[in-house]
Amino acid sequence: DVTATPLYESDCAIICAELAALSNLHSISIAGPGAAACLPRAPNLATTFSQLTCLRLGTIRSHARVVQLLAGLPAGLLQLRLDVDTPDHDRNEHQRLYDFLMQQQRSLQLAHLTALKTLHVTGDGSFVVGQDSTLPPNVINMTLPLVLHERPLLQLTHLQHLELKNINALSADRQEGFADIARRLKQLTHLE
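Predicted structure:
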């Protein structure tokens, strides 16, 4: 297990170099802004850390970095905890609205994470589950900042605990979304 908190950008280079030499890690936890930048730049994490079962990363501030990270995760990962956030101080209101609308057009792909049991994503930035997103098929516990359509959720037959940080976004478009979720997800015991 490795836990690190980079204080400066140069710290990430040191952490990255050390992690690259530790290919048998089961757990990585990196706190703070820019945590994803501390991971080795292999084609994907699955080749570097094939035994990784738990990944916790601090603030990731770019949608492109989130997509790149998710695509490279090993299928055997059991737990994924991310904080995704977009720095509001760098953008005006129009840019935030434009970015939000563009994210709605993107889809996140996580179906390859077949062993994942816990997906916990916080923040209000670059993690938007849209109509064409795919989620880990065997996930049991899931916390998401924003879900715009129930379709990706309806495939999660093992889901027991679902926490949506912006539940109004899902219900605003289609009132029957929650009824579909309740009817199809028989294992679901907690919806918040």
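Summary: Helices lie at 9-20, 45-48, 63-71, 93-105, 167-173, 177-184.
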